[in-house]
Design goal:
The protein is built from 6 helices and no strands. By secondary structure, it is an all-alpha fold. The protein is extended, with a radius of gyration of 20 Å. It starts with a helix and ends with a helix. The relative contact order is 0.05.
Length: about 120
């Protein structure tokens, strides 16, 4: 029997197993998407594209992050608003603000982190 089929048969049908399977499938899909992006970045024009592969992948991931950050934050915020959960709403707000700082203004965010770390570390 195939190893994948044996693995799927061996997984118990509990809620915990379903969550683990969903997480594994999500990671697998994310890995496949990342491989598709890197394939497009490296396949452009030979050696020059290979040298700029990291930059191309970074630019592609940055575009995805900018497109998805506020849309996912808005969807999750509407869910928190419907549930009238102030704690969840504030948590989503803080996460979106921190990620937005890294996505939209990396240099200033890096400087702020260095300054805070320098002040705390001495």
């Amino acid at each position: 029997m195939l190893p994948l089929v044996q693995l799927l048969i061996a997984i118990p049908h509990t809620r915990k197993a379903q969550v683990a399977m969903t997480a594994a499938l999500t990671i697998a899909i994310a890995l496949m998407l990342a491989l598709m992006v890197t394939d497009a970045a490296w396949g452009a024009s030979g050696a020059q594209a290979f040298q700029n592969g990291g930059t191309n992948v970074g630019n592609a991931l940055m575009a995805w992050a900018k497109a998805l950050l506020f849309s996912m934050g808005a969807i999750m915020g509407v869910g928190a608003l419907i549930k009238r959960s102030v704690g969840e709403g504030v948590t989503i707000l803080v996460i979106v603000l921190i990620l937005g700082a890294f996505v939209y203004d990396q240099t200033d965010t890096e400087n702020v982190i260095r300054n805070v770390w320098g002040a705390l570390g001495g």
